[in-house]
């Protein structure tokens, strides 16, 4: 069964899954990448509820829903669960073992605490000016770097982007993409687009930086990014079908950018069913044998 997103399911369905998790594990400290047996990406849903409650994103939570989550052990601010000194002991242990504080978001300390998520929260608080000077000094003693895209020199990131381009033939890097070494290239590319457009107060890119990225086919406009990604996926399916004579519908089948082919094709069929596909796209999809749900034509 495919993974379910919070957009497609009712809040109450997600809550019942959260309640089942709490019954099983005794808490609601759901790891970021946790997926239920039925395909619910519960870890991300819990993070979204925290983000809404804490004002990070627009909220659809009301008091009744907040109380319902609290009754099954919801912790809105992870740092409130333990003292600052306890978290710093985990920070010190991590630093001693790895030599830095570049903690993956899904990293869990030996005592079961989600240190990676906690570090992420401290970066957010630092950016918002909510950390005390002592807390800043405590973390910087262990080489804390506050902005992920500053952990490497810009030219180091450019080399990673060039390697991606050489492998994939484009710079349409998924936002969640990480290199084999854990470098968040997808997020870095997103930040470069913000810098190009001057969004969110970002420091503008220099002319040399813009030129360097454009030499490896950087796409600046998000509308064009989406169009390019759609076309790249269709081209990949065309190549697959020419080679194997069928659509890549197996659940395990992944496109070169990591997306599930079955899910992508299902989304296109849903859009076709709802009449929300432009005519030129419709022709390309049907040329591949991708039809609306309920069609008498059989997917090839």
Automatic annotation (TrEMBL):
<feature type="domain" description="Helicase-associated">
    <location>
        <begin position="8"/>
        <end position="74"/>
    </location>
</feature>
<feature type="domain" description="Helicase-associated">
    <location>
        <begin position="151"/>
        <end position="218"/>
    </location>
</feature>
<protein>
    <submittedName>
        <fullName>Helicase associated domain-containing protein</fullName>
    </submittedName>
</protein>
<dbReference type="Pfam" id="PF03457">
    <property type="entry name" value="HA"/>
</dbReference>
<feature type="domain" description="Helicase-associated">
    <location>
        <begin position="81"/>
        <end position="144"/>
    </location>
</feature>
<dbReference type="InterPro" id="IPR005114">
    <property type="entry name" value="Helicase_assoc"/>
</dbReference>
<feature type="domain" description="Helicase-associated">
    <location>
        <begin position="227"/>
        <end position="289"/>
    </location>
</feature>
């Amino acid at each position: 069964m495919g993974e379910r997103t919070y957009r497609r399911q009712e809040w109450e369905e997600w809550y019942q899954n959260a309640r089942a998790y709490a019954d099983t594990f005794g808490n609601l400290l759901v790891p970021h990448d946790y997926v239920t047996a039925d395909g619910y990406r519960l870890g991300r849903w819990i993070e979204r509820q925290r983000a809404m409650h804490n004002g990070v994103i627009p909220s659809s939570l009301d008091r009744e829903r907040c109380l319902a989550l609290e009754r099954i052990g919801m912790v809105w601010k992870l740092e409130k669960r333990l003292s600052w000194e306890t978290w710093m002991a985990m920070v010190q242990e991590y630093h001693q073992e790895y030599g830095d504080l570049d903690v993956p978001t899904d990293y869990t300390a030996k005592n079961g605490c989600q240190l990676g998520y906690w570090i992420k929260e401290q970066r957010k608080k630092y950016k918002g000016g909510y950390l005390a000077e002592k807390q800043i000094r405590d973390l910087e003693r262990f080489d804390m770097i506050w902005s992920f895209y500053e952990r490497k020199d810009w030219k180091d990131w450019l080399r990673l982007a060039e390697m991606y381009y050489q492998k994939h033939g484009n710079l349409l890097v998924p936002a969640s993409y990480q290199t084999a070494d854990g470098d968040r290239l997808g997020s870095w590319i997103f930040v470069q687009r913000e810098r190009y457009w001057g969004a969110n107060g970002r420091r503008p890119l220099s002319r040399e930086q813009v030129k360097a990225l454009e030499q490896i086919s950087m796409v600046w406009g998000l509308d064009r990014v989406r169009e390019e990604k759609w076309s790249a996926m269709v081209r990949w399916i065309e190549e697959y079908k020419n080679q194997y004579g069928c659509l890549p519908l197996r659940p395990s089948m992944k496109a070169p950018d990591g997306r599930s082919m079955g899910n992508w094709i299902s989304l296109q069929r849903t859009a076709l069913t709802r009449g929300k596909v432009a005519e030129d796209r419709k022709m390309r999809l049907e040329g591949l044998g991708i039809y609306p749900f309920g069609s008498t034509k059989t997917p090839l």
